[in-house]
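Hi R.,

As promised on Friday, here is the backbone we talked about, encoded as structure tokens. Could you run it through your design pipeline when you get a chance and send me back a sequence?
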């Protein structure tokens, strides 16, 4: 909530600035319709997903060097190769299993997994993608058509969660893209952060929290066994439990792999973490002012993995493992994959070792990113959790 301290950021180009103006106008119209303010979660929803306008719905680059941030599949194909080994383990235990990926971004993870599964002779009949952004669907299809012409017939795009899925479900950095409410604990109750229009800009105001938000905050306090201090500010995704239980509810037999930056609930709502976990990404600058650059910067919030686990368990899923990304990759066959690169030219080996560092070093993506695996049915624990499993910390 430090929107008064304007971060130093690159200037958006003329087209992006004009696009952001249109998104801002769309949000101002929603604020007017709502009588003067909208909740922060509504603001985040519009900034990211306003039809044809929001950050994920319109045509900016987003991923990789040209965009605003990098995700593990954008860092290196080795992430997908290791994950493919884990998928192969699951697919070998179910008959006719397939893979379903939520929020496939640029399509690189799908490409890397399919290529690796082909090499392992473990290709599923189908690889389905559920992507909310029509623009990204087109980009995924173009990438997969160009780079996997022999496998594209196995890939399809679906528009709603399937009633029944057997095999593997994957979501990399989708949970952090779900809108969050921002709340303030006061001495007497809970307040909800609202966004208001202030001329051409946006500002915040505080409103009494609706019942579902205050109930959710009080439930967190109950579970932590202590109240949050007056003035404490944080986030909660009220949509996450429903999203997870819909995804989990589809799974008839198999395993879900969820990757995201996140922590346990105790860490999430630690007293010293007042201020919350929301981050904004614009052209590889990370800052904490969500009210600027609407529609052209990414807004994301770290994940409370206890909330994920609770929602999954409520649909009858079992937690098959929870670990940091570095441990997952090291336990899951990173070393085997690295051996294959020993015959590559030195320049490429050096590049790969830089990518592996980014994926595994604690100060990079190794520790903040977690993998949570959820299973339904008799499926063995993925070998990626052999090295370490932090399920008991949840
Ligand atoms: C941060 S990006 C991650 C993209 C990709 N998985 C990666 O790792 O590079 C979030 C992705 O999730 C998609 N997304 C957001 N909400 C979604 C939802 N409810 N269902 C499916 N996809 C969603 C976005 O459109 C985008 O493709």
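Update: got your reply. Pasting your designed sequence below so it's all in one thread:
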């Amino acid at each position: 909530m430090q929107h008064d301290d304007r971060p130093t950021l690159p200037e958006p180009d003329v087209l992006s600035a004009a696009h952001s103006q249109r998104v801002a106008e769309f949000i101002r119209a929603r604020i007017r319709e709502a009588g003067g303010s909208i909740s922060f979660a509504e603001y985040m929803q519009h900034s990211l997903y306003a039809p044809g306008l929001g950050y994920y719905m319109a045509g900016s680059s987003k991923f990789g060097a040209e965009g605003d941030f990098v995700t593990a599949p954008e860092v290196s194909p080795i992430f997908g190769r290791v994950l493919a080994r884990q998928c192969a383990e699951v697919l070998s235990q179910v008959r006719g299993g397939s893979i379903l990926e939520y929020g496939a971004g640029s399509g690189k993870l799908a490409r890397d997994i399919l290529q690796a599964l082909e090499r392992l002779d473990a290709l599923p009949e189908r690889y389905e993608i559920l992507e909310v952004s029509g623009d990204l669907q087109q980009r995924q299809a173009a990438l997969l058509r160009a780079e996997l012409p022999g496998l594209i017939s196995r890939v399809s795009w679906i528009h709603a969660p399937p009633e029944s899925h057997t095999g593997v479900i994957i979501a990399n950095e989708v949970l952090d893209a779900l809108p969050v409410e921002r709340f303030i604990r006061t001495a007497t109750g809970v307040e909800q952060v609202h966004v208001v229009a202030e001329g051409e800009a946006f500002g915040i105001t505080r409103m009494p929290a609706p019942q579902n938000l205050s109930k959710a905050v009080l439930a967190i306090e109950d579970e932590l066994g202590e109240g949050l201090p007056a003035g404490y500010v944080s986030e909660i995704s009220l949509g996450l439990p429903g999203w997870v239980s819909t995804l989990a509810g589809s799974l008839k037999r198999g395993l879900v792999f969820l990757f995201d930056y996140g922590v346990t609930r105790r860490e999430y709502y630690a007293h010293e973490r007042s201020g919350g976990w929301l981050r904004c990404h614009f052209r590889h600058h990370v800052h904490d002012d969500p009210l600027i650059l609407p529609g052209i910067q990414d807004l994301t919030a770290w994940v409370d993995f206890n909330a994920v686990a609770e929602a999954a368990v409520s649909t009858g899923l079992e937690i098959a493992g929870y670990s940091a990304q570095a441990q997952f990759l090291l336990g899951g066959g990173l070393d085997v994959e690295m051996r294959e690169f020993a015959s590559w030219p030195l320049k490429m080996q050096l590049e790969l070792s830089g990518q592996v560092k980014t994926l595994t070093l604690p100060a990079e993506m190794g520790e903040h990113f977690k993998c949570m695996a959820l299973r339904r049915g008799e499926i063995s624990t993925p070998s990626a959790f052999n090295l370490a499993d932090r399920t008991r910390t949840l």
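One thing I noticed while checking it: The longest strand covers residues 251-263.

Thanks again,
M.
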